[in-house]
């Protein structure tokens, strides 16, 4: 009886690799050149950070003592979502920076975000001026204002720039209240800048917003020097 010899059959991953090898050979592709390196270049969050920042503030460095204290507190409050994962900003204190136009408040705010990333924690963040926020939330066809407000309200870290610069109205006060109240309730860190004196916030924002800001933020007043004009004059 004649014995028939069969080539060994490849199963599972071996069969897949064999098929891939034939496909690469048919296309004159060197498998070694197409291989994925075992040790890919490490991803550096700091390298990706400038993409989300305005050009003017991409090199911002926080150096105000109160701002640096805030960075440390938020970093220490970061949590690890799962084993082996990077610590993430989830909750933490907020900071209210008040001062004249050009005092460096926005610069310090963006510098604080850079400092957080440099500290080794992950952070999902967004930045908006109060005026832009109100413009985005104005009811109009084709725009889900409620969804946008919810997205801003829930962001783990928010820069709210120039609070108080927009014209006051009942609608503005209501939107501001809903935003601040949610971030207050969930203890989401918020960097707020304003050109108003702290003593004037209540008359512009209303009692409900001013009360929550008083409880949720550390407040710092910058020196009454317009650094933009000072720099231009120099």
**SS elements, strand count:** 5
Output the strand order for the largest sheet. Answer: 2-3-4-1-5
- What is the rounded Rg? 26 Å
Give the fraction of residues assigned to helices.
40-55%
Helical stretch tally: 11
Strand-and-helix sequence, N→C?
HHHHEHEHHEHEHHEH
Overall morphology: elongated
Instruction: Tell me what portion of residues adopts beta-strand conformation.
Output: 5-15%
Largest sheet: 5 strands, parallel
Uncertain ranges: 7-11, 36-43
**Average pLDDT score:** 83
Architecture overview:
With 234 residues, the protein is an alpha/beta fold. Helices cover 45% and strands 11% of the residues. The chain contains 11 helices and 5 strands. Strands 2-3-4-1-5 form a 5-stranded parallel β-sheet, sandwiched between helices. α4 (65-77) runs parallel beside α5, α7 packs across α8 (170-185) and α8 (170-185) packs parallel to α10. The model is unreliable at 7-11 and 36-43 (pLDDT under 50).
Features:
alpha/beta, 11 helices, 234 residues, five-stranded parallel sheet, elongated
């Amino acid at each position: 009886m004649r014995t028939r010899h069969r080539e060994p059959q490849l199963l599972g991953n071996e069969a897949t690799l064999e098929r891939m090898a034939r496909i690469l050979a048919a296309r004159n592709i060197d498998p070694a050149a197409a291989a994925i390196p075992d040790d890919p270049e490490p991803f550096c969050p700091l390298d990706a950070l400038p993409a989300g920042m305005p050009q003017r503030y991409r090199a911002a460095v926080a150096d105000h003592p109160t701002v640096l204290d805030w960075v440390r507190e938020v970093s220490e409050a970061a949590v690890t979502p799962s084993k082996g994962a990077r610590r993430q900003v989830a909750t933490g204190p907020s900071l209210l920076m008040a001062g004249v136009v050009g005092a460096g408040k926005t610069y310090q705010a963006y510098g604080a975000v850079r400092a957080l990333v440099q500290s080794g924690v992950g952070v999902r963040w967004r930045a908006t001026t109060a005026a832009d926020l109100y413009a985005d939330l104005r009811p109009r066809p084709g725009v889900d204002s409620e969804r946008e407000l919810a997205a801003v309200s829930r962001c783990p870290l928010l820069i709210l720039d120039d609070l108080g610069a927009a014209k006051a109205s009942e609608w503005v006060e209501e939107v501001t209240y809903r935003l601040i109240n949610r971030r207050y309730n969930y203890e989401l860190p918020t960097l707020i800048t304003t050109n108003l004196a702290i003593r004037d916030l209540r008359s512009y924002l209303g009692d409900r917003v001013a009360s929550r800001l008083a409880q949720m933020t550390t407040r710092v007043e910058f020196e009454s020097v317009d650094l933009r004009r000072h720099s231009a004059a120099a």
